[in-house]
Amino acid sequence: MALRDLAVLGKANVKKDAYNKITGEAKFAADLKFDHMLYGGVFRSTVPHATIKRFDASKALALPGVACVLTSKDIPGGNRIGIILKDEPVLVDDKIRRVGDAIAIVAAETQELVEEALELMEVEYDLLEPILSYEDAMREDSAKVHGETNLHMRKHLESGDVDAAFAQCDVIVEGTYTTNMLSHMFIEPDAGVARIEDGVITVYASTQNAHFDRGEVARTMGLPNNKVRVVQVTTGGGFGGKLDISVQCHLALLANATGRPVKMVRSRKESTDVSAKRHPMTMKAKTGATKDGKIQAVEVFMTGDTGAYASYGPAVIVRAVVHCMGPYEVPNVRVDADFVYTNNPMCGAFRGFGVPQVSVCHEGQMNALAKALNMDPIDLRILNAQRPGTVLATGQVLDEAVGFIETLQEAKKKAAEVLDTCKENQGVGVGCMWYGVGNTGLPNPAAAFVEVLPDASVNLMVGCADIGQGSSTVMAAIAAEELGLSYDDIHVTSADTMVTPEGGASSASRQTFISGNATRIACKQAKETLAQTAANFLNVPKEDLIFRNRMVYSSKDPAIKLTYPELMAEMKKWGKLAVGAGAYNPKTTYLDAKTMAGIPYEIYAYGTTIAQVEVDTSTGEVDVQKLISAHDVGQAVDREMVEGQIEGGMVMAQGFAVFEKIEHEKGKIKNPIFSKYLIPTAMDVPEIYPIIVECPGEAGPFGAKGVGEPALIPGIPAITNAVENALGQRFFELPLMPTEVMKKIRG
Amino acid sequence: MDKIKISFILNDKPVTVETYPNKRVVDLLREDCECTSVKEGCSEGECGACTVLVNGTPVTSCLMLAGQIEGDSILTLEGLSKDGELDKLQTSFVEAGAVQCGYCTPGMVLSAKALLMKNPHPTHEEIRRALSGNLCRCTGYTKIFKAVDMAAGN
Ligand code: FES
Ligand code: FES
Question: What ipTM was estimated for this complex?
Answer without folding.
Answer: 0.98
